[in-house]
Design goal:
The structure holds 2 protein chains of 2 kinds.
Chain A lengths: L2 E5 L3 E2 L5 E8 L8 E8 L5 E8 L4 E3 L7 E6 L4 E6 L8 E9 L4 E5 L3 E5 L2
Parallel strand pairs in A: 2-11
Antiparallel strand pairs in A: 1-3, 3-8, 4-5, 4-9, 5-6, 7-8, 9-10, 9-11
Chain B lengths: L8 E4 L5 E6 L11 E6 L6 E4 L13 E6 L2 E6 L8 E9 L4 E4 L3 E5 L1
Classes of the chains: A mainly beta, B mainly beta.
């Protein structure tokens, strides 16, 4: 059974760096075509794709947030980490990590999400 | 990358069919099979219901079907049921930045 769980701070101050961890089980991120992606959803808004890391360690980012995002993986720990620098209130959202299948180009399993509020 | 365009809302009575459109371009929906649809009930994470334009994951009722014509993908829900009331999102690979893009989302209301 594939599961993913997001963890990180619930509250972050403006200008700080947000670090989120995705802990997963049921698959190996070193095996093609497995990838892990991060997605966020601001209150009442649509889903927004953020970043993806594949089995080979290649990374892909949203063009609008690329300068602020970093995605990395620790295959031995079955974890993927996302950092977002210089956060602002508009970064308040529920952040999801999910398994992404490269060849089908689809997200087949989602975590439950973690809510992050940016406020002073 | 620009979001794919969906209607904000659609509605139908139980038993009816509704169709949600997802308008993209030749850089995404029109030329790649990586088109998916997700259902998101209030307060929950999205759930995959269609992948590769027309395929249903196991466990998804065959009332849900996907199609594509040109740069527009569509999701049809047949025999609408109360539990289908949710937000629906499309997604696609996009070659403009070799990445991924979601649609603007559609709220389905069962009257």
């Amino acid at each position: 059974q594939v599961t993913l769980r997001e963890s990180g701070p619930a509250l972050v101050k403006p200008t700080q760096t947000l670090t989120l961890t995705c802990s997963f089980s049921g698959f190996s991120l070193s095996s093609r075509p497995m990838c892990v992606s991060w997605i966020r959803q601001s209150p009442g808004r649509a889903l927004e794709w953020l970043a993806l890391i594949d089995w080979d360690g290649d990374k892909y980012y949203s063009t609008s947030l690329k300068s602020r995002l970093t995605i990395s993986k620790d295959t031995s720990k079955n974890q993927v980490v996302l950092t977002l620098t210089n956060v602002a209130p508009m970064d308040t959202a529920t952040y999801y990590c999910a398994r992404f299948l490269w060849y089908q180009y689809t997200i087949d399993v989602w975590g439950k999400g973690t809510t992050v509020t940016v406020s002073s | 990358q620009s979001a794919l365009t969906q209607p904000p809302s659609v509605s139908g009575s139980p038993g009816q069919s509704v169709t949600i459109s997802c308008i993209g371009t030749s850089s995404d929906v029109g030329n790649y099979n990586g088109v998916s649809w997700y259902q998101q009930a209030p307060g929950t994470a999205p759930k995959l219901i269609i992948y590769e334009v027309t395929n249903r994951p196991s466990g998804v009722p065959d009332r849900f079907s996907g199609s594509r014509s040109g740069n527009t993908a569509s999701l049809t829900i047949s025999g609408l049921r109360a539990e289908d009331e949710a937000d629906y999102y499309c997604s696609s690979f996009t070659s403009t930045s070799t990445s991924f893009v979601f649609g603007t989302g559609t709220k389905v209301t069962v009257l």
